[in-house]
Amino acid sequence: MQIRQENPGDYKAVFALLEHAFRNEVHSDHKEQFLVEDLRKSAQFIPELSLVAELENKIVGYILLTKIKIKNTENEYTSLALAPVAVHPDYQNQGIGAELIRHAHQKAKELNFDSIILLGHQDYYPKFGYKPAKSIPLDRAPIN
């Protein structure tokens, strides 16, 4: 398997992958493919953090991290949001999603980002270092 930066020639395949991967997901509005299209056009899009997983010249996985601002009454922090991560149903449970997450974390560190937030399955993401936001002071949420 190869993980690489997405390029415009991948957009159609990624759209189809997202549509298929989230089709039967209960906790989804089934519009992730449109979210990605919108995020690619935004100022928050970072091309180096839009990644595909290829197996036998076929895109089987995708992950996107985009820039966000977290503000409270005293401070503003730049962070990243992870959404979405998807693996084609025929290739799930083979570690592809995990490799995409690890690769995205490494790329984010290389680009000097310190944290990533997400909304996701509470039993899946802790193995990658994610914790409930309420349990971490904002200035102490490093990328693992």
Automatic annotation (TrEMBL):
Cross-referenced CDD domains: NAT_SF
GO molecular function: acyltransferase activity, transferring groups other than amino-acyl groups
Cross-referenced Gene3D superfamilies: 3.40.630.30
PROSITE patterns in UniProt: GNAT
InterPro entries, per the entry: Acyl_CoA_acyltransferase, GNAT_dom, MshD_Acetyltransferase
Domain N-acetyltransferase stretches: 1-144
Protein name: GNAT family N-acetyltransferase
Protein's organism: Sphingobacterium hungaricum
